[in-house]
Amino acid sequence: MRYSGFEVIKQALRGHRGWGPAWRDAAPRSEYDMVIVGGGGHGLATAHYLASRYGITNVAVIEKGWIGGGNVGRNTTIIRSNYLLDGNEPFYEMSLKLWEGLEQDINYNAMVSQRGIVNLIHTDAQRDAFTRRGNAMILNGADAELLDQGAIRREYPWLNFDDARFPIKGGLAQRRGGTVRHDAVAWGYARAADGRGVDIIQNCEVTGFVMDGGACTGVETSRGTIRAGKVGVAVAGNSGRVMAMAGMRLPIESHVLQAFVTEGLKPILPGVITFGAGHFYVSQSDKGGLVFGGDIDGYNSYAQRGNLPVVEDVCEGGMAIMPMIGRARLLRMWGGVMDMSMDGSPIIDRTHIDGLYFNGGWCYGGFKATPASGMAFAHLLATGRPHDTAAAYRFDRFRTGRMIDEKGMGNQPNLH
């Protein structure tokens, strides 16, 4: 079934009894051309682009839980391409362009809302840094606009301008940035891939890799052995644990990143804003709740929950720029497990094991990168060559010293 306005009207007249499942809950077969380990946004996007762009449909996506239960459904939904370095900006700009056409591509309402994002400026030095970032964005084909304090006052008059510890001097805006409904991204990619013949296999945990003559030829799972010509791993915060089954130690640590949502409020926040003197970012959902987050928890963990000191720190950041947030009641909080790389940038590369490929190390950037990550990983799996925009995301950059220190904070994941 193809979704359309006409189909909605037709089903309404029939009492909505004709809707079918969005995708098949497939049982695993014994062999596929390719197996993607990880049914999150990146794994599902990879399967979709393998099928739609490269015609490879004998593919299985294996997920240990249910579709949408991992980080793809546990983030703050922000999309943007306001990066600085050459290794990152073209990639994230490609991702933003893919977001712009996503709903037509997958025939699914992912609620892509390009409401804009503004990074607030609090010092003269920060204005210089954001001017440089904006110029780098424009040179790579992205949009960027430097705003003075007057422009920020007109758009966000309720921010704390006059008696703030960190006075607001302006901001860097990307009007094409915004938000997307996170779980709809997973559902839409799953439905699109399934429609082209990909098997989406839920509740199927990988317990090991099948090795023949030093090459990876499949996976051992809780539902039996599955053979494959190539195996791609895209499991986010579980990257270290899963790749250890293949004898690999990754330059990645797993940390918890908490997110929060308040009770529903009247429309107040037209776009996404970030606090430039700390780590706080906030937008308003279609239900009216303020959705926000901040720093990762400093300790290593695989738990999808956080701790109270970080809650306090994030709320302090919010209070510093918008004191009115202190009157909103916090409705719920949750955690995602972040795969923090040693330079704050991702890895999309083949491993030293023939037939085994890896996609991970996304740090804070995983959700916004979903379409480009899927496209680049599909290209690598289908052709054996890195995608042009992901050529810098190799394992060997840590050995050769070609790190992509986007945040400029070195090799401490808790500081990215």
Could you describe the 3D structure shown?
This protein has 416 residues and is α/β, with parallel strands linked by helices. It is built from 11 helices and 18 strands. The chain has helices spanning 5-13, 41-54, 89-100, 102-106, 124-139, 149-155, 182-195, 239-244, 308-321, 370-383, 397-400, and strands at 31-37, 59-62, 78-79, 117-121, 145-148, 170-174, 178-179, 199-201, 206-212, 215-221, 224-233, 252-264, 272-275, 280-284, 289-300, 330-341, 347-350, 356-360. Strands 1, 2, 8, 9, 10, 11, 17 and 18 form an 8-stranded mixed β-sheet that branches. A hairpin with a 4-residue loop joins strand 14 and strand 15 (289-300). The chain is globular, with a radius of gyration of 21 Å. The protein starts with a helix and ends in a 16-residue tail after the last helix.
- The total of beta strands comes to 18
Largest sheet: 8 strands, mixed
Number of helical regions: 11
- Poorly predicted ranges: none
Query: Helical residue percent?
Result: 25-40%
SS-derived structural category: alpha/beta
Shape: globular
Distance between the termini: 44 Å
CA gyration radius, whole angstroms: 21 Å
Mean pLDDT: 94
Relative strand content: 25-35%
Order of helices and strands: HEHEEHHEHEHEEHEEEEHEEEEHEEEHH
